């Protein structure tokens, strides 16, 4: 072998010992880690040989996204998968500005997160690709005006649609006190993505297409378009399905010159105050999930009562039937779009007929006039017997801000 060939061979990084290669790979963030397998055969072998480097579980089931650490200027989000075989491996991703701990999270779909910055403006971000899309400012909503003094934004004034009076929020309070949930129809960079938000007052709906400069208010004559609690987009009929607090269900069509809303399930008399999700199952049924979670902050034992029920909605019969069998699937609920069903046959960690819930409720402390998020729980609910178990020990230092959310990672730009 000639001297030049020997010199090149000594510098060939593909010949690093596997344990040293693995050590290098553990310092990488998720996007770079996912690309290492394509570098060369030696790096691919090291990646596959060390189970701590295998990021494949992230793409087999929804994972939790949260902030781990105390640095308020950190750009890093952490992803933790339920499908990792109990390894509890944390994958790190650095997101673009603003810093992740300064954001509030209130939605996930198509591999993207809906977040709000310190001015309460919404941004969609993909943690895997680091792509980010800014939505129209909160000040462009029909019922919001900006209060500016000496060139500085002081507050948002939120007007009650069709009612007298208004509420005022500080710029950073709007994301907690104003928004309820965010859902979008497709990959935000697809060119035809519609974003819909439930917001104050009275849980009304506004919408915009990615690229718009203003939000539009959902308003239809002779129909009550308020008190919404959850919604999803059905790509098969290109409609949004939204459920109100009284269980009334609307379809919302935003593809014509004007929004059209149709009542497809009439209101029901409900025995208790609960939170409702609306879900489209893989077998095409539309399900209503009622979640009741009572947490007594004045109780020394942190008394908590959690109840959940799932109902199949019959739009023709105008009836609901309780179901306790999800057909071999598990359902993930929270700030994510209520569309995360996972078949459990190929994933031993995820159990069938279970609901995995990442706490998405906010307590309002009327005595102090503040919103006070309680320590959030990630729980597994057995529909067959109603038992509730913590997925991770609670409370966690990272469980309040930003709120942990289920995400199905995606490489879509």
If you had to describe this structure to a student in words, what would you say it looks like?
Residues 13-46 form the F-box domain. InterPro entries: F-box-like_dom_sf, F-box_dom, KIB1-4_b-propeller. It holds the Pfam family Beta-prop_KIB1-4. Residues 81-366 form the KIB1-4 beta-propeller domain. With 413 residues, the chain is mainly beta. The protein has a single domain, classed as Methylamine Dehydrogenase, Chain H. It is 8% helix and 38% strand. The protein has helices at residues 3-10, 18-25, 30-35, 41-49, 174-177, and strands spanning 63-66, 76-81, 90-94, 104-109, 112-116, 122-125, 132-134, 144-149, 152-159, 166-169, 179-184, 194-199, 204-209, 216-217, 228-234, 239-244, 249-253, 260-265, 275-280, 286-295, 304-314, 319-323, 329-333, 340-343, 354-358, 364-365, 370-371, 378-382, 388-390, 405-407. Strand 28 and strand 29 (388-390) form a beta hairpin. It is globular and about 70 Å long.
